[in-house]
Structure formats: structure tokens, C-alpha cells
Amino acid sequence: MPELPEVETVKRGLSKAIIGKKIADFDSDWRKTINYPLPRYKKIVKGKKIIAVRRRAKMLLIQLSSGLNILVHLKMTGQLVFRDKKRCLMGGHPIEKSCETLPNKFTHATFTFSDNSNLYFNDVRKFGWVRLYSDTELEKVFAKMGLGPEPLEPDFTPEGLFSLMKRRPRSKVKQFIMDPKNVVGIGNIYSDEVCYYAKVRPDRLVKTLNAKHAKLIHDGIVKILKAAISAQGTTFSNYVNSNGEAGAYTKKLKVYQRYGKKCYYCKGTVKKMKIGGRTSSYCPVCQK
Predict the structure, then answer these.
(1) pTM for the structure as a whole
(2) What is the mean predicted confidence (pLDDT) over 161-171?
(3) Catalytic residues
């Protein structure tokens, strides 16, 4: 599943392509992709204008006129493709020849704009969705999800993070970082990198950490996510940005999937362990 940097990269690319466009038509062939019967969904979005593209956690939020929103979750194999007469932009899971044949067998939702350009939602495994909510409904959806702070916003602080740690003393550090109720947008890749930055083992219990550890974890989250966004994410899970390009942050990864190789700092061997069903990479010398 794409993490915050990957979704943020798609958001930025998509914003340049679709803001200001008016939806002329909509179609979907998979009932679980949308949260209304197709005729009603189509009637609601038709004639609405796209006024903004935002991100919340690992989801994309396409804001429409009249207080409506399309909440997009790419899940494991979702992809958004924008195409007009001059260009084809895609972001998310790469699907072979995505721009050559549209719609294709993986296309489960299509937004047609008034200028005859299109936004396609493709999904190989059909886990993703494009759900329609009013502003009021969206607030309730986010409240029900119990999402924590955005790690790149001012309200995400070392003090706030340490306070949350005190409430979840028996959590393992990696699981704590990946829990969206504590901080959103961090998955398997960046949690490993943050633990390495903070020099703590991913399986260490949160109750053994102090305020200094919390500060290191906080700083690691912010610095690593910003660097990954600048490099447009990673290439793992076959992820591509809105131009169909693989992210470059993979070249900067310190421990993720480097087990068996030398640690860049101490030259010891990077090892792996299972935490909550996820394979985690760490340096047993540098991380305690």
C-alpha cells in the first residue's frame, strides 16, 4: 500500500491536471468501488466542478463544488490515470500499457470532464474505492476512522507524540508508528527507516522510551517523509508517481529490505524480524 510520500506525490501531480474541470459524466462497473447506486452517484457528481485536490493520511480527497467530496483510496493495486488529447498522467500501482488502452479490464470508475478529458480509477484487485461524501458526512467519516495528526503539520509535536506513547505503553515501536490513530501515513517502509534514524529496535516496547527518544522519532518521521516527498517516494510495491515514474527515495533507504547487507554506519549486518505479520529490517548494533 502506498504511504504518505507516494500519495502526496500523486496529489501534487493530479492537482495540476484536474482542478477547474467540470464533471460531465461518470461510470462504474464494480459496485464496491462506489458508495451509492450508480444512477444516484452519476446524478450527484454531474455538473460539479473540481476545486481542490487534498490528501488525508493515505487517501486522496477531490473536493467538488456544492460541498461535495470524492474520497479515493488506492489500497494495494489502485491507480489513477488522467488523459486528454495531449497527455496521459498516471499515479499509483503501475498497470502495463495503462495509457494505451483506456478504459481497460481494470478500469472500475471513469470521470468524464466537459472538455472530453477523463480521469480513470483502475484497480487490479478491486480493494480500492472512490466514495462520495458531503462535507458533513466526510467529517463523520474521518472522526470514525480516529485518524491521528498529519506528521507534516504544525500540530504534530514531540511533546504530543510522547504523550500518546504514555497511553500505549505496551505497543511495540514499529506498530505504534504505523498506527494511524497515533500518526497518519506511515507504513512498513518508513517505520523501519524512522526506527533506524532514532536508533531504537522496531520491537522495543514504547514504555521503555523517554522524551529524548520521542524527539528522535518525531524528527525522523518529519525529515524522512519530507525527503521521500522530494524524491517522489519509493519504487517498492511497483509504485509510480503521476508522471508514471518510479520514485527515487529507494536510493536513500538505510535499512528497509537490506537484511543480510552491511549497515551503512557500523558495518554490521542488517537483520530482519517479524512484527505483527510484517517483515522488519534493523541493525542490531545501532538500534537498541
Answers:
(1) 0.90
(2) 97
(3) 2-3, 58, 278
